[in-house]
UniProtKB/TrEMBL annotation:
It is found in: Cell membrane. This is ABC transporter ATP-binding protein. Belongs to the ABC transporter superfamily. Pfam families: ABC_tran.
Amino acid sequence: MTASLEVCGLAFAYPDGHQALFGVDLRIERGERVALLGPNGAGKTTLVLHLNGILTGGAGTVTVAGLPVGRQHMAEIRRRVGIVFQDPDDQLFMPTVREDVAFGPAAAGLRGPELEDRVRTALERVGMADFADRPPHHLSFGQRRRVAVATVLATEPEILVLDEPSSNLDPASRRELADILRSLDVTVLMVTHDLPYALELCPRSVILSEGVIAADGATGDLLSDETLMRAHRLELPFGFDPRSVPTRP
Ligand SMILES: Nc1ncnc2c1ncn2[C@@H]1O[C@H](COP(=O)(O)OP(=O)(O)O)[C@@H](O)[C@H]1O
Ligand SMILES: [Mg+2]
């Protein structure tokens, strides 16, 4: 079967010469939810920016459902890889929620009732259907993040990539977003420093450290490995026991 995402030997240096990735290999099967963990400066954002071709030009390959990320198929790649950025205000720029969510599918050629349908479905999936006519900047931060997820879902992506989805959310919003993410039948790659969130949502985690994948395994096993965690500057919240959390599919 074709993987949702396949990264092979990805290496990349920024124009100033700073090398951020040193040969990353990562295969994510369709429907998997994977957490991307690692200390600041590990290369997580650099890796994410390669998944839809915002960054290119290094060594190695990235393919999304069999399609190579490269100049030829950029529009299709941008549709297949839905990136939810850390700050929803980088993603919402239209006068209403509806227009923001319609933007991607309209750019892909959808019109009329088909487009309306797509927008409604995406907003329903994040519990924001009642807010379609509101300006995004009138919503709470948690609501804006959910709308940002909807803008990406509306293009029916192959893989949903989230950068720090739980940051700046209050506990109730954090919980609501977890429920939403768990309800989606889409491949998910989630960059996070929120290790309990990773454990709750992602059966599998990879640790990126100094530009290479340092560990890849069951999230509970990785978080329970104190030596591994310390080596990569990953810290569980005080008193949190990863073995006490049952894994839910
Ligand atoms: N635009 C850039 N130019 C040069 N170096 C960069 C740039 N962006 C990031 N870096 C460097 O690349 C490394 C990886 O950064 P990044 O991918 O942002 O890590 P993370 O997201 O894991 O914190 C860091 O050492 C960072 O300083
Ligand atoms: Mg980052």
